[in-house]
Batch of 4 targets.
Target 1
Amino acid sequence: MHNFTPVSGFLGGALIGLAAALLMLLTGRIAGVTGIVGGALQGSSDDRGWRIAFVAGLIAAPLIAALFGAPLPRPTMNASLAVIAIAGLLVGFGTRIGNGCTSGHGVCGFARLSVRSIAATCIFMLTAIVTVAIVRHGLGG
């Protein structure tokens, strides 16, 4: 296994769970990033402020951590910008079809024992496993 970091993984997961629980307790909202970003982009959203703050926190957190010495790795993408853009559009389309993303279904819905979210998360994982198998092994990667 490459770059196995169980302590930081555990702490990161705990912080994600804490943030999701606090958002649910304080606002009654689910921490699904797609829904939060979608609501922030809509012009008539009454609760736009917290949504913008949430997205700003997602962007600012690693930058602030880097100020305190945390490594800020540069992502490596072995595909062209066009392939990455198409992949992003497909992910966005899929989140609309699935009525949510991995954060909403996988973190919040799973924790609430939502049957729809459990099914969606299983489909996300199965699709990811099949995609990696095809790209890494089936296409000569």
Note: The chain has a mean pLDDT of 86.
Target 2
Amino acid sequence: MAFAATLSYALGGAVLAADSCSLKAPDPVLRAKAYPGQTLDKRSADTSTETAQLRPGLRLAIRQDGCEDYVTTRFTLIAAHAQAPDRSDEAWIDFARTELGKLLTREPGRYKRLDEFLVKARRTAPQDGERIVCRDGSQPVAGLCSWDSLGGDVFSVKRGRTTTTITVMEYVSA
């Protein structure tokens, strides 16, 4: 979680420090009206969040941030315990691959690379509860991919009292 927390703090600070980002939040990921109760919230010119109830007991949130030289897309699946018995991290990776692969997206096939990351994540040792793969194949240092790596992907699972939260984040730096 160190990478996601550090990245979230760093990116949040960058957005707060300069609201003059030339790269705006990407277009929505999901097809319009693909899911009941689907929402799209553009809180600022460079951040958007989509939410959807995929089925009873399984919610999805997609947050996208963009600025001068980065774009992040964070897919968060929130599974109720009744729908999701305790699983290993590897089983949650398989679950994420299945669920993200079925999403009704505006650009079918766009997230193929994310699926390729999840395959690699199964073979990647966790670091502070996260599985991190740098885009250029380099090793993360202290839970972070270097700027020169062009970004990275992060998988994490957080088990709560009533839900399990599975997060898959892609970070692209330019």
Note: Confidence is low (pLDDT under 50) at residues 1-18.
Target 3
Amino acid sequence: MSGPIGYDSDQVQHNVVLLTEVPEEIPPSAIISEVEGNRAEDTSAEFTRHLEQRADQLASEVEKVRAWVADHARALSDAVAALRERDAMGAEEAQQALSMIDSATDSTPTGAGGESTSSTQSFISGLPR
């Protein structure tokens, strides 16, 4: 079963806000990199160093994810803006075409059977599809 394809721009904008707010809840990489541990013995100091390395890697990945999410949220916002603009342009073009057809049919003399002459037909056939 298929339905019409469409978008709800308010829902999209809500999702963009969610995408940009959630990364703000994740602590900054400087805090993620902080590791406190026992360094009194060699084994525990080595383990603490290992945790520090992993924490640094995690902090680096978190920053990459933040950048990725921000880029995609901007792209989503831009796509919605482009769709809105295209919708507005399409509505304007349709209104202009209707106005031109109305003015052409109002001012064009009719033939014997009450039919409009070929100028309106040629105008309609010249419209983009």
Note: The two ends are 27 Å apart (CA to CA).
Target 4
Amino acid sequence: MYAKDYRYIGMKIIAIFVSTLILSLYGSWRAYTPEPDRVSDVGYYSFGGIFAIQVVPLFFVFIILGLIVSPFVDTMIFNKFHSKGVKGLLTFIVAYLLLGVVSGIIVSIFFRRVESVLFFITISILGAMIFLFVQLAIQGIFYKRRATNDAN
């Protein structure tokens, strides 16, 4: 579950791109108003416009949290808890949930929207969980392929 070389950062970068795509598509789908539901004389964005507005800030949030903060969290978990299997997975889930809560609070303070802290925490937790599961899926695929190649 943990690689101590360049492949680890490569997996994080791929997870950042995939997580950004997933969360941006979900947010665009939630915010989009279909043609039949639109009211006249009201401006609406297209699905692509909403996606374009969301993808850039989410990408930078994932860069900061996924490429800068996440390796420190992963290293701390491996060095402090030495957990594997289900216990290790649960430790990672709790750690990334806490990372989502803390980042949601930081974002709400940054935007000076303390009254919306619950919204930012929810979005941050969702992003952290998406990132964790995408990262674990990529690592699982990589190590499964690597084990197959090593067996041959």
Note: The chain is about 80% helix and 0% strand.
